[in-house]
Design a protein that fits this description.
By secondary structure, the protein is mainly α. The chain has five helices and no strands. The chain is globular, with a radius of gyration of 11 Å.
């Protein structure tokens, strides 16, 4: 799943480890989310957004492709 977690995290000067500790997951989970290899639950998405002070749309919105 594409997202802007890494951008949002670095904008608030947090390491993967610091973000992970604030939301109660492992650093590896944050890494996988940032790489798009793990689809977080809605609750986890919200927790990330609260910590980085962004909305769900700002961090997780993906534009629908025209077909």
């Amino acid at each position: 799943m594409e997202n802007k977690v890494k951008i949002a995290r670095t904008q608030v000067s947090l390491t993967q480890q610091q973000l992970a500790e604030k939301i109660g997951v492992t650093r590896q989970t944050i890494s996988l989310i940032e790489k798009g290899k793990y689809n977080p639950t809605l609750k986890l998405c919200l927790d990330i957004c609260y910590v980085v002070n962004k909305t769900l749309d700002e961090v997780f919105w993906i534009e629908k492709e025209d077909k």
